[in-house]
Amino acid sequence: MIHFNSVDQATFLRDYWQKKPLLIRQALPNFISPLTPEELAGLSLEEEVESRLVVQKSDTDYELKNGAFSEQDYQNLPEKNWTLLVQGVDRLIPEVHDILNEFDFIPRWRIDDIMISYATEGGNVGPHFDHYDVFLLQAAGQRKWMLTSQDCTEDNYLKDVSLRLMKSFPIEEEWVLEAGDVLYLPPKWGHHGVALDDECMTYSIGYRSYKGQELWDSFGDYLSEHNQFNQLYQDPNWTDAKPAEIPNQAWLQAKQLLLDVLNDEQAMQHWFGRFATQLDQQAHQALPEPLSTEETATLEDFTDALSSAKGFQKDPICRFAYQKLSDQPIVTLYINGFEWPVTGVQDAIIMQLANQDCIDSESLQRWSKQPKVVRCLYELWQRQFFTFVDDEPVAIEAEDLD
Q: Are 395 and 296 in contact (CB under 8 A)?
């Protein structure tokens, strides 16, 4: 857990989260980046990795390039004033994914990803604001951050610039961050970060943002998929209606029909669990392939391997969550936008599966004696949502399938 120092966790959640920025000095003291700039650049050479290069040529002239990049692209860069940004590094590097454990005071299903940037001296992506919460962890070097709460509107941007940069940026606060410092920013706070040296690396722990239209469309799709909203619109009691008139009572009838389904708490609960855990397109494409029939061991062999395994590791791309539904006797588990069948599995086990990145050997030994739990784990392993630590179950591979 990060060290809040001047405020405690409860104060942060009450007074700062989605309200105002907070600089947390040495939130992660003695922090050392698990990734070097060279390794980050190496990731940007891969086609499946989302990456960008931003080069500042003048105060308002920025050049934006999208990866994948080549070694030649880096050789052609100037010595100063450029930034490399790589998205979703937590899905690629386990040591980066582990950093999320420091931020578990916010539910994990709210996190989008960890983006890592490297910048040479002067490197920046311009003054801008985002629509999501973010923790900016200084991983190496120094970066100067300038903040404003003013003019964070959609029409305040520079035209004919490849990046959406704020035209008016009246600086209200200014800080220099060093390794281990964390700056929290809520949505719609203008910020501008400039690298002060050639070692500058920043980890952006970003959270999902949801527009109302996105919620509305998703809920409508859910109702349609489950055939749950088939009530017919009924006319009001007509009194002195004119041929072309739409009286107020007519649209109020439609409004009431919509309110009735919005007030269906069971439908809302089932839908939101799916919505909160759904994957974006890039993450969905990066999901591991399920095991083929040839690769899948028998349930008996799996059980034996489970009882002696070092651990059971969750795939970093997967999104797990759970909730207690009013119409269900047990906790409901959600994985990647779907309700996952867990009939006969105890609530405590469901919650442990969702909350922990890795299930320890002691738990696995205990669970291996419970057939319904083993079946659940077996199905998760078949989908490769969980895998054995250090490829432990060698015994359940080809030689045991004969």
A: no
Which residues contact residue 26 at a Cβ distance below 8 angstroms, ignoring those fewer than 6 apart?
3, 5, 180, 181
Best CA proximity match to 89, nearest among 193, 188, 4, 204: 204
Contacts of 369 (CB under 8 A, 6+ apart): 307
Given strand 332-335, what is the order of strands in its sheet? Answer: 320-323, 332-335, 338-340
- pTM assigned to the model: 0.91
Q: What is the pLDDT of residues 153-195, one digit of tens each?
A: 999 999 988 899 999 999 999 999 999 999 999 999 999 999 9
Q: Are 44 and 69 in contact (CB under 8 A)?
A: yes
Residue tagged 């998929």 (tokens)? 225
Is pLDDT above 70 for 398? no
Sheet holding 22-24, edge to edge: 22-24, 182-185, 134-140, 200-207, 111-119, 82-86, 51-56, 62-66
Backbone dihedral angles phi then psi of residue 66, each to the nearest 5 degrees:
-105, 140
